[in-house]
Amino acid sequence: MAVLPLRNKVLAAVSCWLLLAILAIPLKAEEARQDPPPAATQDVVPAADEGVEGIASYYAKRYTGRRTTSGERYRPEKLTAAHPDLPLGSRVKVINLANDNEVEVTVNDRCRRKKIPFIDLSRAAAQELGFFGKGIAKVRIIPLEDESLED
Fold this sequence. Notes:
By secondary structure, the protein is α/β, with parallel strands linked by helices.
């Protein structure tokens, strides 16, 4: 067996480690592609009578007067909401799980999609639900069928 200088031994060792890392990349990618466990997935909108539990927040003051996705201007005294999936103009009942207060709102805007069900309410709706000033609340979101706001 030939005796390699120290520099060649180091280069050979580094080459082996690099080759090992390159061969392991497809294995890591396959792990990342696997679906999450079934318990972590849930339907965003189950049956209309049960609704879905999620988080509600309310619009900041700076959005007053800005146009929503539907084209209307945001008015904090109106009972409106933003939701990532529900059709614009649809009516939704929102129930605060902490105090059982409920309010019906009209979806007139979109909000970012989140991992958990989420709705962004007007300030008036947050006041009726009793969490204005607290930021967020756990709520039940129940889409109301065949009802829309007529202007």
